[in-house]
Design goal:
By secondary structure, the chain is an alpha/beta fold. 46% of the residues lie in helices and 19% in strands. It has 2 domains: 191 residues, D-Maltodextrin-Binding Protein, domain 2; 123 residues, Periplasmic binding protein-like II (D-Maltodextrin-Binding Protein, domain 2). The protein has 11 helices and 9 strands. Strands 1, 2, 3, 4, 7, 8 and 9 form a 7-stranded mixed sheet that branches. It has a two-stranded parallel sheet with strand order 5-6. Strand 5, helix 6 and strand 6 form a beta-alpha-beta unit.
C-alpha cells in the first residue's frame, strides 16, 4: 500500500518535472484574432517562424476571427495554460475593447500571462486611389460634405482600425458609414478595389500598397515620418496635430503558465525579435521592434494597463459623439 502510494507520488512528480523540462513536445498554436493577410496575422507569421526554431516545435497560426478580435482572444484566454496555446493580441483586443464591450469575457490586465511586445505599428490614414482630395485637409472637407455616403472600413468594434477610426471621425466631425470586416487584410483588398473609401490602419498592412501606388496615404499619425514611407506627411505637418496615435501587437498566453514554460516562451520571442530577417521584415513594413525597455512581460503588462486607462475615456466620448 505504502509502496503503491510512493510510486504514484513519484510518477506524478516525474510527470510534472518532465512537462516543465521538456516543453514543448508538440506544436504550439498561436491564435490570431483577425483574418489572414492583415497586420496582426503578418506580425504573427513574422515572429512565429524564428520562435518555432528557438522552441524546436512548430508555432502554428490559427485565425479565429470575429467581434473586433475579442472572439479569438476570449477563446485563447480560456485554453489550458500549458504553453500550447498562445495568442497575438493588439492595442484593440488588449487596450480598446474594454471601453466598447460591456460583457467582455476577459480582463486584458488580469486574464493573461504577458509574453512580450512583438511590434509597434504606427497608424496611417489611407484612402482609395480614386478619391480626388490631394491632401489631408481636402480629404477632411470631402468627408464632412460626403457624410454617410463616405464608407470607412474597420475590423470590428474595439479593433485598432475601429478605435483609431472613430477617434479620427470625432476629431474632424465626420459621420461616414462604417463597414465592418474580419480584419484589415480583407478591408485593404476592398480599399484597393475602390469598394470602400478609407480607413485608419496599422502601417505594416498598408505600407506596401502605399508604396506600390494602389492606395493613397493622407498622413501618418506619429510625431515623425516613417523611414519606410518618407513621402507621407505626419498628421502634424498635414494640419491635424491632435491626431497622434500608434498601435502595437504583442504575444500573450492564458493566465497560469508554469514559470519555466513562460520563461521559454519569453526567451523564444526575444530570440525571434533579434533574428535579422524577422527584424528586417518588421522594419521594412514600417513597424518598430521593441527597444530593451519595451520588451518582455513586465513592460507589456504595464503597457496593457496604461492603454486600457488611456483608451477607455477617449473611446467612450468618441463613440458617444458618433454612435
Ligand atoms: N489592424 C486590424 C485592426 O484594425 C486587425 C488586423 O490585424 O487585421 O484591429
Amino acid at each position: 500500500m505504502r509502496t503503491a502510494l510512493a510510486i504514484s507520488l513519484l510518477s506524478v512528480l516525474a510527470a510534472f518535472g518532465a512537462a516543465a523540462d521538456t516543453y514543448p513536445q508538440r506544436p504550439i498554436t498561436m491564435v490570431v484574432p483577425f483574418a489572414a493577410g492583415g497586420p496582426t496575422d503578418v506580425v504573427a507569421r513574422i515572429v512565429a517562424e524564428p520562435m518555432s526554431r528557438a522552441l524546436g516545435q512548430q508555432v502554428v497560426i490559427e485565425n479565429v476571427t470575429g467581434a473586433g478580435g475579442t472572439t479569438g482572444i476570449t477563446r485563447a484566454s480560456q485554453a489550458s495554460p500549458d504553453g500550447y496555446t498562445i495568442m497575438m493580441g493588439h492595442m484593440g483586443t488588449h487596450g480598446a475593447a474594454p471601453a466598447l464591450f460591456k460583457g467582455l469575457k476577459y480582463d486584458p490586465a488580469k486574464s493573461f500571462d504577458p509574453i512580450g511586445l512583438a511590434a509597434g505599428t504606427p497608424i496611417v490614414i489611407v484612402a482609395k486611389k480614386s478619391l480626388p482630395a490631394e491632401n489631408l485637409k481636402g480629404f477632411i472637407e470631402a468627408l464632412k460634405t460626403g457624410g454617410a455616403s463616405m464608407n470607412q472600413a474597420h475590423a470590428g468594434v474595439g479593433s485598432v482600425s475601429h478605435s483609431t477610426g472613430v477617434l479620427f471621425d470625432s476629431l474632424v466631425g465626420a459621420k461616414p458609414t462604417l463597414v465592418v470586416y474580419r480584419g484589415t487584410g480583407p478591408a485593404l483588398n476592398d480599399l484597393v478595389a475602390g469598394q470602400v473609401d478609407f480607413m485608419t490602419d496599422q502601417i505594416v498592412n498598408v505600407a506596401p500598397q502605399i508604396t506600390g501606388g494602389t492606395i493613397k496615404a493622407y498622413a501618418i499619425a506619429t510625431p515623425e515620418r516613417s523611414p519606410s514611407l518618407p513621402d507621407v506627411p505626419t498628421t502634424k505637418e498635414a494640419g491635424l496635430p491632435e491626431y497622434e496615435v500608434s498601435a502595437w501587437n504583442a504575444v500573450f498566453a492564458p493566465k497560469g503558465l508554469p514559470a519555466d514554460v513562460r520563461a521559454k516562451l519569453v526567451a523564444a520571442l526575444d530570440t525571434a525579435l533579434k533574428d535579422p530577417s524577422a527584424k528586417k521584415r518588421i522594419l521594412e513594413l514600417g513597424g518598430t521592434v521593441p527597444k530593451e525597455a519595451e520588451a518582455g512581460p513586465d513592460a507589456l503588462q504595464k503597457l496593457v494597463e496604461s492603454e486600457v486607462a488611456r483608451w477607455t475615456p477617449v473611446l467612450r466620448s468618441a463613440v458617444d459623439a458618433n454612435p
